[in-house]
Amino acid sequence: MTETTTRPALIGPYGPAQIACLRSWRRLGLPVLFVHLGDRPLPLGQRVAARTVTLPPDLAGTPAGAARLAAALREHGADGITCLSESLAGWLHRLHAAGTLPAAPWVAPPDALARLASKAVQTDMAAASGLPVLPTMAVSRDTVLPPEAFPLVLRPDDPATVAPDFKALLLHTPAELAAVLSGLRRLDRPLVAQRLIVGPNLVVHGARAAATGEVFALAAFRVDRKFEGVTLRMGATALDPALAAGCRRFAEAIGVTGCFHFEFIEDADGRPWFLEMNGRLGGTTGKVFALGYDEPRHLLASFVPALRDDRLRLASGWATGKQALVKAALRRLQGRQDPLDYPLRSSAATLAETAAGLVAWREETWRPTWPVTTLAYLLDRLTPARAADRATPVAPLGKDPLP
User: Fold this and answer.
1) d(Cα 270, Cα 312) in Å, to the nearest integer?
2) How many angstroms separate the CA atoms of 320 and 287, rounded?
3) Which tens digits make up the pLDDT trace of 325-355?
4) For a surface tag, which of 40, 64, 133, 236 has the fewest beta carbons within 10 Å of its beta carbon?
5) Helix or strand (DSSP H, E) at 391
């Protein structure tokens, strides 16, 4: 327990990262407000950890939504509010600047969010910070790359500068690149291209104090199982001091405050290469929470020093999302395997590992409903209406998303 009277608030959908925040902050004895972005109120069993109000997603970013949010924050007496989304963070900053947000925005500052939005800026700052960066090419409409440059990963510098927008594309030939470029209605900045590496990921979590700028609570986790390019299984690992120093320099240079996490990918020699930094909670928040890394507390401590506790009590073993684990196994049994699944395994090996994982691996955030929702997913996938979907081949490689 803590003696602080901090009253935090959180806005967003109900997912693993939000569940981790609610559990962490209630464990600290803090009165929590959860502004749930959803079309209907949460069931009673999911509202016991915090005072909860529901805001329809289409009201986020609108004057009506701002008024309802402000009313809930005032009634709760919230000191600060945080979120998982850059767009929500920008909305919170705009409301605060206009004087209509009755709580501090506990998110990265606007200038840091702007720098983080650019892949080109991130890549340049990572190199300047001493982090290992892959050779990077700027791709404009008239760019032609030689065949030896492929396969490569193509990303927008900022998704807001390209239409139709996309997160990342895996391309294998110059013809695929030409097709992508010809299909863009708008390209305000050059795209960013880097060679493809398929291997484990290294995720480095940390936080930076708003008042002092100190980076603290750095910890590393290795992702050795991926499903469609995203984390399926991860465990704590040692953090190389040189890499830690580079992460500190990068966090300080880009100006992030609150929690953050770096993503690296390891090549065949085990060398980690910088992919990106996210200045917020993320998809691995729940998993590292299950491994003893209390990222929600470190987030609050960045803005409320009385809550800071730098001691890391990391658990051994693995953490996963069991719904995703079952989904990945089912896809494999159907003969459907994404090029970004890692490692590529036989159906028998996948099934055996899934059974072991359901028993032995830590759930990212234990939810009593996960067996029910998993069963519902399985029934949905096995109904005749899904037969056509099951028979559909894997999408062309040019449309595969990457983390």
Assistant:
1) 25
2) 6
3) 888 888 888 877 777 788 878 888 888 888 9
4) 40
5) helix 387-391
For 193-202, the pLDDT digits (tens) are: 999 998 999 9
Per the DSSP assignment, residues forming a β-bridge with 80 are: 8, 104
| Strand-strand pairing, 272-278 and 258-266 | antiparallel
**227 in Cβ contact with 341 (< 8 Å):** yes
Sheet holding 169-171, edge to edge: 136-139, 191-195, 152-155, 169-171
Question: What distance in Å separates the CA atoms of residue 293 and residue 288, rounded to the nearest whole number?
Answer: 5
Pairing label, strands 51-55, 33-37:
parallel
H runs (alpha helix) in 304-346: 322-333
Give the three-state DSSP class for 400.
coil
CATH T-level fold of 8-107: Rossmann fold (3.40.50)
pLDDT band at 307 (very low <50, low <70, confident <90, very high): very high
Amino acid identity, residue 265? I
- Strand, helix or coil for residue 69: helix
309-327 residues labelled b (16+ CB within 10 A) or e (exposed) = eeeeeeeeebbbbbbbbbb
Residue 273 bridge partners (DSSP): 265
**What does the alpha-carbon distance between residue 282 and residue 207 come to, in Å, rounded to a whole number?**
13
44 Cβ neighbours under 8 A, 6+ residues apart? none
Tell me how crowded residue 182 is: count the other CB atoms within 10 A of its CB. Answer: 8
Query: Which helix (H) or strand (E) is 261 found in, with range?
Result: strand 258-266
Gap between the Cα atoms of 195 and 199, Å rounded: 13
Q: If we measure between CA atoms, which residue out of 17, 83, 82 comes closest to residue 364?
A: 17
The pLDDT assigned to 393 comes to: 31
The verdict on whether omega for the bond into residue 56 sits within 30 degrees of 0, i.e. cis, is no
What backbone phi and psi angles, to 5 degrees, belong to 63? -60, -40
Dist. CA 14–CA 36, nearest whole Å: 7
Question: What is the token pair recorded at 69?
Answer: 């949010």
Please give the single-letter amino acid code of residue 60: A
Q: Where are the domains of the chain?
A: 8-107, 135-195, 320-395
What is the three-class DSSP state of 5?
Answer: coil
Q: Which amino acid is at 297?
A: R
Dump pLDDT digits (tens) for 374-387: 554 455 445 544 44
